[in-house]
Amino acid sequence: MATTKEQVWAAADELAAEGKNPTLANVRERLGGGSYTDISAAMQVWRANRQAAAAPIREPAPAAITEKLGELAGEIWAAALELANARLSAEREALEQARHEAEQTRQEAADLADQIAAELDQARATLRQQAEQLAAGAAEIERLRGELAANAEALNAATHRADIAEASRAELQARVEQLTGLLREEQAARQEAEADAYAVRADVARLTAELAASERRASDAEARASKAEQETGQARREAESARFAEQAAQARLESAAREIEQLRRDRAEAEERARKSEEEAAELRGRLAAVVPSDQPRGEQPPVRRARKPKDKGEDER
């Protein structure tokens, strides 16, 4: 809002009434702002009005003096007035010249003051902007610190999960090796049972042949036939027992095979979880390296335990 002449004059009157010098700076401070150019122009009119009000009153010589002095006194008075007017005219010219120079100086000072005030306002605006940027930078630093702490916690959690996955994988590996040993024992038992069954079948065939021969010779050797029949029954019972043993071994072998297959699937899932955990840890390490300042020592980063590479299927079978 522009400052009016009346406001400038009122401020100058207040300062003069308080006994203070109404300078441009004092008037601008009393107004709370404003252009030095406008204030200077209004103050020039104010000072002119004050000088006109304070100027002495010039009147003609009193009638008593004129009557007493007569014509001589009038001539002397006229000469004095002429001399005074001449001197006053010269002083007015000098005063006008000084006023003109003072006006130029005042105008230059007012322009300089306006320029300084504008530069000061710009500097204040720049300071406010820098303060806002500093506050925003501090907030960003705090946010990055929080994100860094969160990333460190996530990295620790991922490392913990990777350790758990590694322990689970090792445990599954031991279980697979144990079941593999059991399977080999079952295979050996099955081979032994097959050998026994083969021997029993051979005995059955042999006894069957002997039974046939005994039946043909039944009429001649009833006692031998009865004995052979008993031996054949025993052989059949042994063959049935061997068949049952073979079926039980086959069932155990199939159960062990299913358990080994389940363990292999569990191991594959554990390896997949370990791989994902390792990828998460690598990603977190990358994000942590991106937000950690370059001047931070590398030794201050939390250690990351890499998951052990799982063995091949062939190595497990071996």
Strand-pairing-aware structural class: mainly alpha
Tell me, what is the CATH class of the largest domain?
Answer: Mainly Alpha
How is the main sheet built? none
**Count of runs of 4 or more consecutive helical residues:** 6
Strand content: under 5%
Low-confidence stretches: 313-318
Please give the number of β-strands: 0
Average pLDDT over all residues: 77
What best-fitting shape do the alpha-carbon axes yield?
A: rod-shaped
Rg, rounded, reads 61 Å
Order of helices and strands: HHHHHH
Helix content: over 70%
CATH architecture of the largest domain: Orthogonal Bundle
Provide the CATH topology of the largest domain: Helix Hairpins
Distance between the amino and carboxyl termini: 94 Å
Protein name: KfrA protein
Pfam family, one: KfrA_N
Keywords: Plasmid
InterPro entries: KfrA_DNA-bd_N
Question: What's a concise summary of this model?
Answer:
This protein has 318 residues and is mostly helical.
Describe the structure.
With 318 residues, this protein is mainly alpha-helical. The chain has 2 domains: 5-53 and 62-127, no CATH class; 137-317, Orthogonal Bundle (Helix Hairpins). It is built from 6 helices and no strands. It has helices spanning 5-17, 24-31, 36-54, 63-216, 222-291, 313-317. The longest helix is centred in the middle third of the chain and has 154 residues, at 63-216. Residues 213-243, 255-286 have a biased composition (Basic and acidic residues).
Helices and strands, with pairings:
Elements (H helix, E strand, L loop, with lengths): L4 H13 L6 H8 L4 H19 L8 H154 L5 H70 L21 H5 L1
Helix pairs in contact: 1-2, 1-3, 2-3, 4-5
